[in-house]
Amino acid sequence: MANITFDTHRCKGCGLCVIFCPCGNIRMSDVLNEHGHPYAELIDQGRCTGCGLCFRMCPDTAIEIDRKKTAK
Ligand code: SF4
Ligand code: SF4
Predict the structure, then answer these.
(1) From the CB of 16, is ligand 1 less than 6 Å away?
(2) Model confidence over 13-68: pLDDT tens digits?
(3) Which domains does the chain possess?
(4) Ligand 2 close to Cβ of residue 53 (< 6 A)
């Protein structure tokens, strides 16, 4: 498991992370950020495998992964 965080201020709402998450674990917000974009949100931290695909796909470096919790 990994701890995924999204920077709601940097996210431009392109949706690439939503498309590429193999777990279907990312959704777009119902509200807009200060730039007028919906932003990505993790649905369930416990379902995230820490694969890093969302992190690698994001063109705006709006996703951070903390893998310190991947002990096993
Ligand atoms: S790290 Fe992988 S499983 Fe977790 S949210 Fe990103 S794409 Fe989905
Ligand atoms: S890939 Fe990045 S910019 Fe695009 S919706 Fe996801 S977090 Fe936002």
Answers:
(1) no
(2) 999 999 999 999 999 999 999 999 999 999 999 999 999 999 999 999 999 998 77
(3) 3-69 (3.30.70.3270)
(4) no
Closest ligand 2 atom to residue 13 Cα is 5
In this structure, is the dihedral angle defined by the CA atoms of residues 14, 43, 45 and 38, taken in order, positive or negative?
Answer: positive
Sorted by sequence, the CB contacts under 8 Å of residue 2 that are 6+ apart come out as 48, 49, 50, 52, 65, 66, 67, 69, 70
Look up tokens 């379902």; give the residue: 47
What is the Å distance from ligand 2's center to 63 Cα?
Answer: 7
- Which residue owns the Cα nearest ligand 2 atom 6? 17
- The count of residues in the chain is 72
